[in-house]
Amino acid sequence: MFAKKFLFTGFSPNDTSREVARALKFLLFPWQWSRIIAGSGADEVEKKLRAYLPVGDVICFDSGRTALYFAIKYLNLRSGQEVLVQAYTCVVVINSIKAAGGTPVYVDIDNDFNMNTADAASKISDRTRAIIIQHTFGAAATGLDNLLGIARRHGLFIIEDCAHSLGATDKGRKLGTVGDVAVFSFGSDKIISGVRGGALAVKDSSVALAVRGFQNQLPTSRFGKTIQHLIHIPVFFVGKKLYGWGIGKVILFLASKFNIVNKIIYPAEKRGEAVDFYPARMPNSLALLLLDQLDNLDANIVHRRKIAKIYSEQITNKNFVQEVFNPESTYLRYPMLVNGVDEVLKMAKKSGIILGDWYSTVIAPQDVDVARLGYKYGSCPRAEQMAKLSINLPTDVGVNPDDAARIVGVINSCKI
C-alpha cells in the first residue's frame, strides 16, 4: 500500500473530472445518446485546428493511423513504390503504409530519437515516393531542415508524423506546417485526447479536396466502439485512483479482459492486419472531448515544459543519459536512456511510480512480428540500441511539481 498517490506514465493521462463528467453524461442520459455519433463536434475540431496551426485545411478521422493511411492513399502508389519511415516507431504507422500500397523503407535514428539525415539520403531510390518525418516525444528532428531539403530535391511527398507533437515548434515554426501534410493523433496517451481520434493537416487545396473526398465516403465510428471509448474514461480515472490499493489493478484488468473498454492497438493490427471497424469518421462525442482540451492546449504545453525542466535540471544520476532541455518541445514524455531498463521500472514501481518504456523495440509494441513488417535486424543499429535503453517520464497534467520531484528522487537514487 502507498500513502502517496500512484504516478503513471500514460494510462489515459488527460482524463480529469471534467472529461469523466462529459463521458458519463453521454453514457447515462438517454436524451444524449443521439449525440454520441451525430453532431458538429468534428467540424468544430477541424475549425479550431485550422486556426491554431494554421494550415489550408484540417480533416478529422477516427484515428491518426487512418489519417496517415489516407495521406499515403492520395499518392495512388504502384506496387513496389516506397515510403521512407524511421525505425523506433509504432506498428500502426507501418500498417498504414502497407495498407495504402506502399513498401516501408526503414531509416535509422539520431540521438534525439528522430530520423538520421544521412541514412535517409542513402536509402532514397527511384522507387521512393514519400518520406514520413516523425517528431518523437514532441521534439522536431535536429536535422529537420536538411531532411526537408533532401525530400524536396528528390520530389518526395513530405508527411509529418505529429502524433506526439501538437503545439511543438522548430525555430518558431509550428510542427505540422512544414511538410505537405501532417498527421495528428488524439489517442488516449497523446497531448490532448478524445480516447481515440486523429486529423490530417493539409497545405495544398487539391490534396485537401482529395482527402476530404475520402473522408466523405467513410461511415462514422460504430456506436458500440464509441461506447467503449467513453467507458474508458471513468474506468481509467477510477482505476488509477484505486491502483495503489490493488482494487484499481483489478478494475483495469477486468475492463480490458472482457472488452469493456477499447484497446489502443488490436491483436490483428499487431499482426499487420486490418480491423473491420476502421477506418471511420470521428464521432461527435469524442470530438467534444477534444474541444475542451483544445481550449486549454497552450496551458497544457506550458505545464509539460515546466515538468520537463524540473527533470532536466534536477536529475543528476550519471547512469541516465538525457537531452538538453528543449523549450520548443511539447514533451509528450520526457525521454532518457539507461542500461538496465527493467530494473529501473521495477524499482520505480515499488515506489508507486509506473515509468514508460516507449519504444522498447524498433517497431512497437514488443509483441508485433517485426519480420512480417519488412524490418531486417541490423539495418538500423542505432534505433535497435536505443530501443533497449529507452525509458520515459510523465509530464501530463496529472503530474505536479511535487510529483516530479518525487520521480527525480527515485531516479537519482537508482543504482544500476
Radius of gyration: 20 Å
Q: At the first level of CATH, what is the class of the largest domain?
A: Alpha Beta
Please tell me the CATH architecture of the largest domain by its name: 3-Layer(aba) Sandwich
Mind telling me the CATH superfamily name of the largest domain? Type I PLP-dependent aspartate aminotransferase-like (Major domain)
Number of strands: 16
Query: What proportion strand?
Result: 15-25%
Query: How many separate helices?
Result: 15
Distance between the termini: 25 Å
The overall pLDDT, averaged over residues, is 96
Shape: globular
Structural class: alpha/beta
Main beta sheet = 7 strands, mixed
List the uncertain runs.
none
Helical proportion, percent range: 40-55%
What's the structural domain tally?
Answer: 2
Q: The CATH topology of the largest domain, please?
A: Aspartate Aminotransferase, domain 2
